[in-house]
Structure prediction request, 350 residues.
Amino acid sequence: MQNPAQRSLWKVYLAFLAPMVLSNFLQSMSGTLNSIYIGQLLGTHALAAVSGMFPIVFFFIALVIGLGAGAGVLIGQAWGAREPGMVKAIAGATLLLGVIIGVVAAVLGSVFARQALVGLGTPADVLEDAVAYARVMMWIMPLLLVFVLFTQLLRGVSDTVSPLLALLVSASAGLLLTPALIRGWLGLPVMGIQSAAIAGVVGNAMAMAFLAWRLLRRQHVLAPDRALFAAMRLDMSILGKVLRIGLPTGLQMVVISLSELVILSLVNQHGSQGHGGLRRGDADRQLRAVPGAVDRHYGVDPRGASHWCRTPGAHRADPAHRVADQCRADRWPGGAGLPAVPLAFGAVHH
Prediction:
């Protein structure tokens, strides 16, 4: 039978993990429904044109995931040590580097979109649509990368609810706007294949505005106030630590994105029909993989590991031993228990 301390750890563990699981499911569902919209309303050729850009976008997202991983660990340490100024300094430096990566991606991606898609062997019958979609996606890259990065930083201070609510805003706006722009409902212009990209940027902008409002209203340590903007400078001492911690995670994600590019180039040899089939298969796989994705993305991802570092920052380590004992007692398989151990370090700090 579990003692009261173990039961309290379970409550904290689930309170932290449940919003992350829901975020993962919501993101997968949103991507799947957008694929359905494009495939059903615009056809397989449009679906093939859109899918050609996904591995390239994921490559840049992989870079900021590495940044967020390293920054989340450092933010967890600073938050545990009750140093809000250092939390803002780490967040500001990381966000500015994320903006720079996004701007570079936007410029290079929009200029070399055609060459990149041709190099991947994009079928000729969907190349023009793919290039048009790619250029829109690359221009919205700064906003997308900052949104992804900022939600990671919030988890470093145990806030998993704000990212979930922001993703709900973004996904809802995208799911409503995509078919409206495809069909031209309510007097909106008919945007065709670019509908999903435009709906995405509107959704991300609304989500960022919602986050700013929510965090400022709650006087959150990562609220976009004057102190955070003042901290947005390239502090190389901070960024060196961020990169040293986050580089392994970033490289892992980059390797995954490169493997997607290789698969895409092979599938492109079979024409746009094979390309569209790959996209449909990916959408189905995303939904089927949601339970396992919890371990892959949250069990070993430093977005959870930031909690591991919080209690050392506050010079407390006892909760980790309690969680480790509980993991052994419950015989949690593989990585299923890994999110709980980092959580225990952060659970005692408020």
Q: What stands out?
A: The chain is about 80% helix and 0% strand. The radius of gyration is 21 Å. Residues 283-305, 326-350 have pLDDT under 50 and may be disordered.
